[in-house]
Amino acid sequence: MSLTNQLIAAVFTVLLGLVLGTVYLLSDSSRDTLVRQLESHAEDGATHLGLYLAPYMQQSDSATIATAVNAIFDSGFYQQIEVTGQDGSVLYSKSYNPEAAVNAPDWFISMMRITPPAMSRAIAYQWQQVGEIHVRSRAGYAYERLWAGVRDTMLLFSVLALVSALLLTLLLRFIMRPLHGVEHQAMALARREYIEQPDLPRTRELRRVVIAMNLMVKQVQHMFEEQNRNIEALRSTAYRDSLTGLNNRRALLAQIQEHLEYRQDFGPASLLLFHLRDLQQVNRDLGEDAANHLIKACASMIEDLGQSTGLSITGRLGGADLVLLARQRNFDDWQRRLQPGLMQINTLYEQLSKKDATPSILCIGIASGHDHCSPEQLMSQARLAVNEAEAGHDAVVHYHARQSQHTWSEQWQSHVANAINNEQIFLQHQILKSTKQEAIHAEVFARILNLDNEPCSAGEFISVALDLGLMERIDRAIVRQALNYLSHNPGAPALSLNLANQTLEHPPFVPWLLEQLSASSHRGRLNIEINETAILAHQESILSLRRSVQQLGVSFGVDNFGTHPNGFSYLYALRPDYLKIDGSLIRQLDHSEEDRFFVSSLISVAHSLEIKAYAEHVERPMQQQLLEEMQIDGTQGYLYGAPTPLP
Question: Domain range for residue 33?
Answer without folding.
Answer: 3-173
